[in-house]
């Protein structure tokens, strides 16, 4: 199974990165809808599309307004937008308010339930994350592999979600800041490098992929990869267009 990294920045795009969105095309699954979702057009491989929102901050939902072009060139039978009821409501009422975006793409809003059956015989669950306004993390367990997607939260060595992600084969986790920005991370509800790597180690995951980087840190190594690998060796920093097999 392949995880396609469409975008890896938080807050706003820069010259290297669009805002966060990842996809499993063979299952018709997308997590979040950042500015990078336009890249989904060339990857669509199913007749149904399920988009799971972590929350409704603009850098994670603005790409929903791009669906008209995506679906025009790659029509599908059904698009479902999954999220907490309050987040789905604000997307409908604010992002697609007629004064903001007058033509609503054809999607059904689906409130999250405890377990969602997904393609390939998988089951998707979610957990609450600490973030201004609230956020959720996701986990999918298939019979032979597992994946967790955790973004927009402040990682800590004793984070509540460690048990939720325990033992997954692939952990995709935000890492907005390099070490030394702890106060800013807590203020904005984001994570620093060592804390994310410690979470991965304590949760005994198979592999860690870092996304949702600070767009102002536009170097080739925005978060200090050596620092992360010193704590959890099997760590990668995702770049737009990367593909991870799991």
Per CATH, the class reads Alpha Beta
Query: Which architecture would the CATH scheme give at its second level?
Result: 4-Layer Sandwich
Main β-sheet, in a few words? 7 strands, mixed
For the largest beta sheet, what order do the strands appear in spatially?
A: 6-5-4-3-2-1-14
Helical residue percent band: 10-25%
The secondary-structure element order is EEEEHHEHEEEEEHEHHEHEE
**Parts with pLDDT < 50 across at least 5 consecutive residues:** none
Report on this model:
The chain has helices at 58-61, 67-73, 85-95, 162-165, 182-188, 193-202, 225-231; strands at 2-7, 21-24, 29-31, 48-52, 78-83, 108-111, 116-118, 122-129, 135-141, 146-150, 170-174, 207-211, 235-237, 243-245. It is of the alpha/beta class. Helix 6 runs parallel beside helix 7.
Offer a concise description of the structure.
The chain has 246 residues and is α/β, with parallel strands linked by helices. 20% of the residues lie in helices and 27% in strands.
Keywords summarizing the entry:
7 helices; single chain; globular; 27% strand; 246 residues; 14 strands; Metallo-beta-lactamase, Chain A; seven-stranded mixed β-sheet
Topology of this protein?
Elements: E1 2-7, E2 21-24, E3 29-31, E4 48-52, H1 58-61, H2 67-73, E5 78-83, H3 85-95, E6 108-111, E7 116-118, E8 122-129, E9 135-141, E10 146-150, H4 162-165, E11 170-174, H5 182-188, H6 193-202, E12 207-211, H7 225-231, E13 235-237, E14 243-245
Parallel strand pairs: 3-4, 4-5, 5-6, 10-11, 11-12, 12-13
Antiparallel strand pairs: 1-2, 1-14, 2-3, 7-8, 8-9, 9-10
Helix pairs in contact: 6-7
């Amino acid at each position: 199974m392949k995880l396609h990294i469409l975008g890896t920045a938080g807050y706003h795009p820069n010259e290297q990165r669009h805002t966060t969105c990842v996809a499993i095309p063979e299952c018709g699954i997308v997590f979040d809808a950042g500015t990078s979702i336009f890249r989904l057009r060339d990857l669509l491989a199913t007749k149904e599309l399920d988009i799971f929102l972590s929350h409704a901050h603009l850098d994670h939902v603005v790409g929903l307004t791009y669906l008209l072009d995506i679906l025009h060139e790659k029509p599908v039978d059904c698009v479902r937008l999954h999220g907490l009821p309050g987040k789905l409501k604000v997307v409908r009422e604010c992002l697609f308010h007629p004064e903001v975006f007058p033509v609503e793409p054809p999607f059904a809003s689906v409130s999250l339930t405890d377990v969602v059956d997904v393609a390939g015989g998988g089951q998707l669950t979610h957990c609450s994350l600490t973030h201004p306004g609230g956020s959720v993390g996701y986990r999918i367990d298939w019979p032979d592999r597992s994946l967790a997607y955790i973004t927009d939260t402040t990682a800590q060595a004793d984070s509540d979600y460690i048990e939720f992600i325990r033992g997954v084969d692939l952990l995709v986790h935000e890492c907005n800041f390099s070490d030394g920005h702890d106060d800013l991370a807590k203020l904005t509800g984001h994570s620093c490098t060592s804390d994310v790597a410690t979470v991965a180690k304590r949760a005994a995951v198979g592999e860690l992929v870092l996304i949702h980087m600070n767009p102002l840190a536009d170097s080739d190594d925005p978060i200090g990869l050596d620092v992360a690998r010193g704590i959890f060796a099997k760590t990668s920093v995702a770049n737009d267009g990367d593909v991870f097999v799991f």
